[in-house]
Structure formats: C-alpha cells, structure tokens
C-alpha cells in the first residue's frame, strides 16, 4: 500500500492537510500548556481524516490510534462518555472498519475502498440500534456522574452511527462524524472555561469538522465515479 504522496493527493488536499496541521500546532503553542498527548492525538486525527476522505484503509488504522489517545484525554476531564465511546466503541469499530475496508477494495486497488449502498431496511435497523445505544448510555453516563450529560449523550449517538456507517462503507459516515464534531466543539468549549489548555482541543475539532465535510464531498464523488466505472 505504498503511496506517492505528491501524485496520490490533490493540491487542495495537500494544502488542506498542511493548513489543518499548522492550525493545530499554533493552537497548541498558544493554549496547549505542554500537553503533548493532545497535540499528538490531533495531528494523527487530521492525517486519518485526509486518508479516510480518499477511502484509504490506512486512515482507519490511524483512527484506532487517535481513539485510544482521545480516550485518555477525555478521562483527564472526567468526560466518561467520551472515554467510553472512543475506547469501548470507536476504537474497536475503527478496527473492524479497517478489516472491512481491506477486504473490500475497489477493483483490487488497495488504496481505495469500494463504496457501499445501504438499503432502507438497514437504515431503519441502524436508527433503532442507535436509539437503543443512546438510551443505554444515557443512564450509564448519568450513573457515573458524567460532566455535561446531555451533549455527552448526543456525542455517543453521533459517534455510534458514524462508526456503524464507516464499517458499512457508506459515504454518510463522514457526515455523521461532522455532526459529532459540532457536539464535541460544544463539549470542549465548556471544558475550556475551567482549563484554558482545552481550547487547543476545540480548535482540533473545528478543523476536524472542515475535514469531515470535505470527506463527505469526496465520498459522494467517489461513489458516482465507481458507479460509472
């Protein structure tokens, strides 16, 4: 799965990646207060999103690493919902998605996964399953005294459906992650009121939002191209 970077990525994608990484580093230097773990997780996360936008399985491998690091960061602020979601759900689902993406290349191209079309019945199943997970996690998070319970629960909802759609190779996984980014921005803005260093995490997810939106656009184009080819 060797990639010639300059040929593999478009000029826009290279600029997007460089600008995203630069914004994260700058915010870390201003607000990070030496939190190298947050910086490391953010840089890995951005790289993962750029690769995911291309349908490259390496992106899912990086997402596993990001999920583990982000779970540790969430624990430090007692966002147990985020910790449980990323360590107990997103990381394992990213690993499953990695296997799924590797097993389903587009025309034997190991650097691009085959886009999948989800039926109406499966959408209903996914919605019901997501609702059940949301209700269950609400009471679990409440029992643990999770900070900012409502947005934390909504984060579980969006994270679960995003992870499910990623595994199923649906273009809408990126849109679900974009929705999750919005919720996470709210969560970490609230956290930054008591610890300013978390502003760097807010910037991280704002950049993630831009990249996930771009990822959705890429997958829509990829779906159309694969259908024609």
Strand residue percentage: under 5%
Inertia-based shape: globular
User: Describe the biggest sheet?
Assistant: 2 strands, antiparallel
Strand order of the largest sheet: 1-2
Residue-averaged pLDDT:
89
The topology string of helices and strands comes to: HHHHHEEHHHH
Q: End-to-end span in angstroms?
A: 22 Å
Going by helix content, strand content and strand pairing, the class is mainly alpha
Discrete helix count? 9
For the CA atoms, what is the radius of gyration?
17 Å
Helix content: over 70%
**Number of beta strands:** 2
Low-pLDDT regions: none
Description:
By secondary structure, the protein is mainly alpha-helical. The protein is built from nine helices and two strands; from the N terminus they run H-H-H-H-H-E-E-H-H-H-H. It has helices at 5-8, 11-31, 36-53, 57-76, 80-103, 120-143, 149-167, 172-192, 199-228, and strands at residues 105-106, 109-113. The longest helix has 30 residues, at 199-228.
How would you summarize the topology of this molecule?
Elements: H1 5-8, H2 11-31, H3 36-53, H4 57-76, H5 80-103, E1 105-106, E2 109-113, H6 120-143, H7 149-167, H8 172-192, H9 199-228
Antiparallel strand pairs: 1-2
């Amino acid at each position: 799965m060797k990639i010639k970077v300059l040929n593999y990525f478009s000029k826009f994608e290279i600029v997007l990646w460089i600008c995203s990484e630069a914004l994260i580093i700058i915010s870390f230097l201003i607000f990070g207060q030496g939190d190298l773990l947050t910086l490391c997780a953010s840089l890995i996360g951005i790289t993962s999103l750029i690769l995911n936008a291309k349908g490259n399985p390496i992106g899912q491998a990086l997402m596993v690493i990001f999920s583990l690091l982000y779970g540790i960061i969430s624990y430090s602020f007692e966002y147990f919902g985020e910790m449980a979601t990323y360590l107990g759900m997103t990381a394992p689902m990213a690993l499953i998605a990695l296997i799924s993406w590797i097993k389903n290349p587009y025309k034997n191209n190991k650097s691009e996964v085959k886009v999948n079309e989800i039926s109406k019945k499966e959408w209903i199943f996914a919605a019901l399953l997501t609702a059940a997970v949301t209700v269950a996690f609400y009471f679990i998070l409440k029992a643990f005294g999770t900070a900012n319970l409502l947005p934390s629960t909504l984060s579980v909802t969006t994270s679960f459906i995003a992870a499910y759609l990623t595994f199923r190779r649906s273009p809408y996984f990126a849109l679900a992650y974009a929705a999750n980014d919005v919720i996470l921005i709210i969560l970490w803005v609230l956290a930054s009121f008591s610890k300013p260093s978390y502003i760097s995490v807010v910037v991280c997810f704002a950049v993630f939002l831009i990249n996930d939106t771009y990822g959705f656009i890429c997958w829509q184009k990829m779906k159309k191209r694969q259908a024609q080819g």
